């Protein structure tokens, strides 16, 4: 079972294709309403009207508004990633860059939804489950590469996987906030994110890992030939074939 489908299965005592389809419709509608109104403007009443379900169905299935929105965010990102066939291994620097580029292309078409996610991340009062969901996509992008860096001894002594990843996540969300405000153009958005990623990673790595990072950082600040090669594969990223249940 893929991650997106496993999310549909959470908290279910029993399941059926009909229940799965109803949950998928509810989560999809939730995502659309968040994109339209933001998290603060999201209404269970409007969700019930559009998804054609009763309020008690929502609370029985998802327990709370926060849990519903959290699952909707996670399901959206998981479905998006699982629908893509990536060229580079996710545990490589090139794989992390490719996934950032693919996500960046998607974000351009989902600006209001991204704004809602960014607002949740920076909120001082948002539910913890919501904040975890807001970070899910970028954590999934960075973690395999970070683990590989550690296993190969390329992280500096004293730098752990979790501090490294969470520091980069914070930097990437800051760049996303600037983009949401209109301070960064669509064209420069991905390059600002890569600058944040590579610049920080260069400072906390060593050996061959750092040399590879510096190679891409120099390319980013120069002619961007190496990045253009990854961009070609990212732009072509086809939808993956359906996986067996």
What are the salient characteristics of this protein?
2 domains; Arc Repressor Mutant, subunit A; disordered C terminus
Number of domains: 2
How much of the sequence is in beta strands?
under 5%
Proportion of helical residues: over 70%
Globally, the shape reads: elongated
Average of the residue pLDDT scores: 89
Number of helices: 12
Q: What is the element string, with H for helices and E for strands?
A: HHHHHHHHHHHH
What class, by secondary structure content?
A: mainly alpha
Let me know the number of strands.
0
Query: What is the distance, rounded to the nearest whole angstrom, between the alpha carbons of the first and last residues?
Result: 5 Å
Main sheet overview: none
Please state the CA-atom Rg, rounded to the nearest Å.
19 Å
Poorly predicted parts: 240-245
